[in-house]
Specification:
The protein is mainly β and 262 residues long. It has one domain. 2% of the residues lie in helices and 36% in strands. The chain is built from one helix and 16 strands. The protein has a four-stranded antiparallel beta sheet, with no helix packed on it. Strands 7-8-9-10 form a four-stranded antiparallel beta sheet, with no helix packed on it. Strand 15 and strand 16 form a beta hairpin.
């Protein structure tokens, strides 16, 4: 169950008052929360239109659709209209990205990025979407893991998409305790980084993009700082270190190592 909350400084008069229990959240002094919706299921990312409509990328497909659109019609901060929409013949329905850009709603599955034209005064965008990027990750040379597709856009007509690492830490045998890492890591040519694409060209493949950043294992969220003209990202680091290298992760011992792969 996804719990979407709107946070606000309590001194801001233009927003509705917070819920008495702040939706069960513990917040710093001066902040409060309103539960916007608590019934849409598992979600990953969301985007908010200028009119306050909220678009949510569901993590997994539901029978009614893969995306949720929410609207507050009476100004109390809670979504009283919730529509599920969109179904795709996808490599994977593992949803991640949801962005509003140049009048379009961009969204991603595990293997694709689509865009739908937003309509004036309409909650739902145009049903027919346009395939902007396709990733046939299930047939990748090095296998696949971390295939989520967070997306963002810069000031110059570019879209940025991550292609995550196909394993944990580029071991010779993936996730086998004690198996050595590879350096240089052969996976980095096509994985573990960010690629730059045109933001409006349909049917692009990874090879059509520019390899923009490397050595980043698994980004789950990224955004373009339009003032600094710089990409920021948040990534998941390596997995269970104590399982993979138990001799370096004894109780009370802090491992010290120089990371070269991811």
């Amino acid at each position: 169950m996804a719990l979407i909350c709107r946070l606000a400084m309590s001194c801001t008069n233009s927003l509705p008052p917070g819920d008495p229990d702040n939706g069960g959240l513990t917040l710093p002094d001066g902040f409060e929360a309103v539960v916007v919706a608590d019934s849409i299921g598992k979600a990953r990312h969301l985007a908010v239109r200028d009119n306050g409509d909220i678009h949510v990328k569901l993590r997994f497909e539901r029978p009614e659709g893969e995306n949720a659109a929410l609207r507050d019609t009476d100004g109390d901060g809670k979504a009283d209209v919730i529509d599920l929409w969109g179904s795709y013949d996808s490599v994977s329905t593992y949803g991640t990205g949801m962005r509003i850009h140049k009048g379009y709603l961009y969204l991603s599955t595990g293997g694709e990025v689509y865009r739908h034209k937003l309509r004036k005064r309409k909650l739902l965008p145009e049903e027919k979407g346009e395939l902007i990027l396709f990733d046939d990750y299930k047939n990748a040379e090095h296998g696949y893991e971390h295939y989520a597709k967070p997306i963002t856009f810069d000031n110059d007509g570019h879209m940025y998409v991550q292609f995550g690492s196909p394993g944990d830490v580029c071991q010779i045998i993936n996730r086998k305790p004690g198996s050595l890492g590879q350096y240089p890591c052969p996976q980095l040519e096509w994985h573990g980084g960010v690629w730059q694409f045109a933001d409006d060209k349909p049917n692009q493949l990874q090879k059509d993009g520019k390899h923009y950043a490397t050595g980043i294992r698994s980004i789950v969220g990224m955004d373009w700082n339009h003032e600094q003209n710089t990409l920021y990202a948040l990534q998941h680091g390596r997995d269970n270190f104590s399982r993979t290298w138990p001799d370096l992760s004894l109780p009370g011992r802090v491992p010290c190592f120089r990371q070269k792969n991811f």
